[in-house]
Amino acid sequence: MRHYKALYERMRRKGVIIRRHPDGKDPRKIELFGKFKTCSKCKETKHIYDFDFKNRRRPDGSQRHDIQAECGYCRKLQKIKKYNSDPHSYVLRLIQIIRQPSAIKKGRRRCTMELDEFMNEWQKQYEITGLRCPKLGIKMTYTGGESKVITNISIDRIDGKKDYELGNVQFVSNIYNIMKQHYTDEEVDEICLLRVNVIKKLENGQEKVVGG
Ligand SMILES: [Zn+2]
């Protein structure tokens, strides 16, 4: 345990974040703040494990452990509300997720752009096409929640073989990004054209629906 603490401290100094209790179940919380606490937002009394630490620095630089007044659930809800209040906050959040150091471990592509640089790419597109998906022409949304909203803004790497790098990102609706998962922009165009031609013929009654 002692050994582990030293490692933890070393990594912390390097700026690497290791959470010893990623599920929030840190026994020190009970020692410091008792077993239960009432959330200032929902007013429910919950287990102290449902509350996050709030680390503050004393003037001398040392850390003082404090606990959040609102429960983790309320804080999560609030974040979702904030990120879904306007498209720019929503995009900022998307970029933050991409830039997380843990993203690579999760199998995501590297991001070589700084946050500002990335946001600048969004601003450039927004000034030209606003919330319109440049690929599908539909209005992109920024709705929250767990499930995937197909019209929501998402970040596409134009060339799927390249990283999130300058000149290789575009902001498109989720559904377009899903189509792009295995194909290039050009291939998606070709497939869509084939489908459009079939739909047009069906509408003109030139072709009978097979098996329909
Ligand atoms: Zn609460």
Descriptive tags:
212 residues, alpha+beta, 2 domains, two-stranded antiparallel ribbon, 8 helices, 42% helix, binds zinc ion
Could you characterize what this model shows?
- This protein is α+β, with helices and mostly antiparallel strands.
- It has two domains: 2-76, no CATH class; 84-195, Herpes Virus-1.
- 42% of the residues lie in helices and 12% in strands.
- The chain contains eight helices and six strands.
- It has helices at residues 2-14, 27-33, 72-83, 87-99, 102-105, 115-129, 174-180, 185-203; strands spanning 36-38, 45-47, 53-57, 63-67, 153-157, 169-173.
- The strands form three sheets. The chain has a two-stranded antiparallel sheet with strand order 1-2.
- The longest helix has 19 residues, at 185-203.
- The model has no long low-confidence stretch (mean pLDDT 86).
- Zinc ion (ZN) binds at residues 39, 41-42, 44, 70-71, 73-74.
- Zinc ion is lined by residues 39, 41-42, 44, 70-71, 73-74.
Short précis:
By secondary structure, the chain is of the alpha+beta class.
Task: Set out the fold topology.
Elements: H1 2-14, H2 27-33, E1 36-38, E2 45-47, E3 53-57, E4 63-67, H3 72-83, H4 87-99, H5 102-105, H6 115-129, E5 153-157, E6 169-173, H7 174-180, H8 185-203
Antiparallel strand pairs: 1-2, 3-4, 5-6
Helix pairs in contact: 4-6
Bound molecules: zinc ion.
Residues 39, 41-42, 44, 70-71, 73-74 line the site of zinc ion (ZN).
